[in-house]
Amino acid sequence: MRSGYVVVLLGALIIGWSIPADAQNTPFKYQFTPYVWLSGLKGDVGARNQTANVNASFNDLLDHLDFGLMGAFEGRLGQWRILTDTLYLDVSGEKGTPRPPFIDASVATKAFIFDQEAGYQILKREGTDLDVTGGIRFWHLKNGLQLARGAESLGIEHTRGWVDPVVGLRFSSDLPKRLFVTAKADIGGFDAAAHIDWQAYGGIGLKFNDRLVGSIGYRNLSVDYMKDGFTFDAGMRGLVLDLGLRF
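Above: the chain sequence. Below: its structure as tokens.
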């Protein structure tokens, strides 16, 4: 899976450099951004009224990662923005700490997370933008627990899907030497489905040319959802590496 991430990012790099660039600072209308999120997972994961606490680093998850796919898209039309973010992870065999009477647990999670938001530019200065954003975050999770106590074992699975409304802000600003900074924060849930659903991201990037940009940042995505015996009260956080293709 490490090699898969490298292939995706190298492919974006080659394509971006092969596209002829226009004059410097040409405004772009679309940007497609494959990315790698070096994320850990910390919190409570549950199925059928059984829960286990997981505290796994990125390396822990990578050892048990069966498949991962991550990408974002941005479209611009005047002051309006369309922002899409898609994340799929299939992790199995991660160790967790169960509640008594069980003493050992193995956790498997399949997570599909899809953000669809619209943004409106409320501030524009030379090289600086501030947008207000709003939309939905769709979660589809399948939690699996393998619980053990001596010779006794119990395997359970539980699947839930829900949609949370989210609102937030998005900021970007150019720096000297083709550098730029970007940040995004949103909050949602509001007990419509999840109790709370929020994320925060901040990063610094480089414009290689008018078509290719790259950045490194830090992202935290957390949700507190407990309903009908299903629990996902956890946060994913870690470094993000991306390459964006602009058109």
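The first strand starts at residue 30 and ends at 47.
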